[in-house]
Amino acid sequence: MPIILKSAAEIAAMREAGRINALALEEVCAAVRPGVRTRELDRIAERVIRAHGAEPAFLYYPNATFPEYPYPATINVSINDELVHGIPGNRRLREGDIVSLDCGTLWQGVIGDSAVTVPVGKVSPEAQRLIEVTREALRLAIEACRPGRRLGDVSATIQEWVEGQGYHVVREYTGHGVGYEMHEEPQIPNWGTRGRGILLRPGMTFALEPMVTLGPPELYVKDDHWTVATKDGSLCAHFEHTVAVTAGEPEILTLP
Ligand code: MG
Ligand code: MG
Fold first, then answer.
1. If you measure from the C-alpha of residue 112 to the centroid of ligand 1, how many angstroms do you get, rounded to a whole number?
2. Ion ligand 1 residues within 5 Å by Cβ
């Protein structure tokens, strides 16, 4: 599959999809507090997305490994040792948790995809630092998305920063091209080699998503067929933006 370059008009549509997605995540984050059920967060996201005439892009997303279990919700709510794809339900957030919230919005045929990890109440300094290092990994990766540079530069930027801080990048999941589909070419690993990979060109649209673990980056999928967590139970964090490569500065498309 080739990489689909987007026109200015297509990027404008993705900017609106991304804006709606960011508004949904913003409202969800405002509702994060000890005692809230993860299903309540999901309802907030779905309400905001539909109020803007858009649709949840994760809802009924096919499960590659278990085709009989399409994704049942609007957002992923992944708590502490859970990295991605946590299914919202009756579970309540607790003081000291960190929670990763990932949301996708489909608007007029295009997708916005972004994620944040936030503290629930007061968290340990260790958890706070993990969040900050992962957020910074995303910022640095976005900065690297410039024409003439290579995809390996983006990947290596994330890996070098994260490992330099004493943490680990996940190998089993990656960032990705995004636009008409949730997952388009290319895959964007959070590890790599500078100077390698495709040349970045204006019109490329990426979902960059550093996934960082405090302990060993080995993962497993829980019995719900979706939730991905660390094998050793240690904390992990995840940030994501949808970004367009332009002739100049990279543009974040998932801003409120
Ligand atoms: Mg996402
Ligand atoms: Mg993504």
1. 8
2. 102, 113, 115, 240
Q: Which residue has the tokens 């990295």?
A: 83
Flag whether 2 is in a domain: no
Residue 3 lies inside a defined structural domain of this protein: no
SS3 content of the chain, % helix, strand, coil (to 5): 30, 25, 45
Rounded-to-10 torsion of CA 127, 237, 243, 15? -90
What separation in Å is there between the alpha carbon of 14 and the centre of ligand 1?
14
User: 197-250 pLDDT, tens per residue?
Assistant: 999 999 999 999 999 999 999 999 999 999 999 999 999 999 999 999 999 999
Q: Is residue 227 part of a domain?
A: yes
CA of 96 to the centre of ligand 2 (A): 26
Evaluate if residue 1 carries a pLDDT over 80.
Answer: no
- In total, how many domains does the chain have? 1
For residue 1, tell me if it sits in a domain.
Answer: no
Beta strands in 108-252 (DSSP E): 110-119, 168-169, 175-177, 184-188, 205-208, 211-213, 219-221, 228-230, 236-238, 241-244, 251-252
**Which residue segment(s) compose the domain that 214 sits in?**
8-252
> What distance in angstroms lies between residue 49's CA and the mean position of ligand 2's atoms?
17
Write the CATH number for 99.
3.90.230.10
- What number is the average pLDDT over the span 39-55? 98
